[in-house]
Amino acid sequence: MTIRAAVMGVGHYLPARVVPNAEFADKIDTSDEWIKSRSGIERRHFAAPGEKTSDLATHAAQAALADAGLTAADVDAIIVATSTPDLTFPSVATMVQARLGMTRGFAFDVQAVCAGFVFALANADGLIRAGQAHCVLVIGAETFSRLMDWEDRTTSVLFGDGAGAVVLTALPGQGDASDRGILATDLNSDGRFQDLLYVDGGTSTGTTGHLRMQGKEVFRHAIEKLAETAHRSLGKAGVTAQDVDWIVPHQANLRIIAGTAQKMGLPMERVVVTVQDHGNTSAASIPLALSVGRARGQIKTGDLIVTEAIGGGLAWGSVVLRW
Ligand code: ACO
After folding, report:
1. Would you say domain 181-322 falls under CATH 3.40.47.10?
2. Is residue 157 within 6 Å of ligand 1 at its C-beta?
3. How many A from CA of 256 to the centre of ligand 1?
4. Is the pLDDT of residue 40 over 90?
5. Which ligand 1 atom is nearest residue 310's CA?
6. How far apart are CA 40 and CA 58, in angstroms?
7. Torsion angle, CA of 189/47/256/291, rounded to 10 degrees?
8. C-beta separation of 51 from 15 below 8 A
9. Predicted local distance difference test score (pLDDT) of residue 182
10. Residue-averaged pLDDT of the chain
11. Which of 6, 140, 233, 296 is deepest in the core (most CB within 10 A)?
């Protein structure tokens, strides 16, 4: 018997304020047409003043637990993928733990920028298969609006705030690709590329800092590395791209999403796309897309899904799972 980490519930939360592209065109030298044609983004949500990453994360966690028919008392561990914690420490995960009224188990954050949720899923899979936890809440939550330089038109129009969460529990399987749950993971990073995408603040400056990105260079790395990692995890799972029901990619740019699907030989009809409504929500984008894809009726029980993401580091990876 093989133990699998299977998705039992999914949920998301988006702050109330919706910011259409036109709002940027009023303030900086840009246009709805440029943003849409270069990125696919039409609108994004921004957190209200005082609304924190831990607030978004808690709402998403509650939605995922309700979807799973479970309560905080059933959860053994919480992992939050985020690069925008409320405070340098403690972790957002421990804040969520307290807000959920959970007084046992353990909680920690994972920071791999836009690839954070993929890294968090791989961690949760390891904990469950090693028998250290039976039920893990995995959350991606971000308030990237707090990292924007509003004078910089090359970055400020691309990002949004939000949170998504899944509940994973241990489920016995056969050990083959027909099992429900996480079937394979593939994680990578290469710190030589850290200057392509970073935030220029932290303990070295005593400030939160602003996001800086060489967009064209990140774009160049993205399609090649995402298709490669997806193929590697599909291979580890013993399936091919043709077996995939849904690609649920990190939602950074529609051209990256389409280019990766094309490189994998899959049509856009098999890709869950939410970037038009959310912008790039970094580690929150994949669980948001999983939750929206489920709510739209795209993702069904038994579907084979591949998720892939790349972000600052560079860090990138993929997960193959059967829903
Ligand atoms: N409005 C109008 N014009 C703009 C804007 C804007 N908002 N931003 C840039 N431009 C201009 C540039 O100044 C440039 O003008 P120039 O030719 O006179 O110099 C022109 O548009 C073209 O700019 P490029 O940067 O070459 O545009 P490109 O087609 O590469 O698109 C983009 C830019 C959207 C950033 C793209 O490169 C991209 O998506 N890169 C990947 C970004 C990404 O995925 N980042 C997330 C990674 S995940 C994470 O960890 C955060």
Report:
1. yes
2. yes
3. 12
4. yes
5. 48
6. 29
7. 90
8. yes
9. 98
10. 97
11. 140
Output the CA–CA distances (angstroms, integers) from residue 39 to 6, 138, 208, 252, in the order listed: 33, 28, 26, 8
Confidence grade of residue 237 (pLDDT, cut at 50, 70, 90)? very high
Atom 26 (ligand 1) nearest CA: 216
Would the CB of 252 count as within 6 Å of ligand 1? yes
Residue nearest to atom 28 of ligand 1 (CA): 216
Task: Strands of 67-180 (E only): list them.
Answer: 77-81, 106-110, 135-143, 161-173
* Residues acting as catalytic residues: 114, 250, 280
Locate the ligand 1 atom nearest the alpha carbon of residue 309 and give its number.
48
Each residue's pLDDT tens digit, 49-78: 999 999 999 999 999 999 999 999 999 999
DSSP 215-236: HHHHHHHHHHHHHHHHHHHHHH
The pLDDT of residue 26: 87
Q: Please give the distance, rounded to the nearest whole angstrom, from the Cα atom of residue 38 to the centre of ligand 1.
A: 7
Which residue's CA is the closest to the ligand 1 atom numbered 10?
154
* pLDDT tens-digit series, residues 129-169: 999 999 999 999 999 999 999 999 999 999 999 999 999 99
**Global pTM exceeds 0.90:** yes
CATH architecture of residue range(s) 2-173: 3-Layer(aba) Sandwich (3.40)
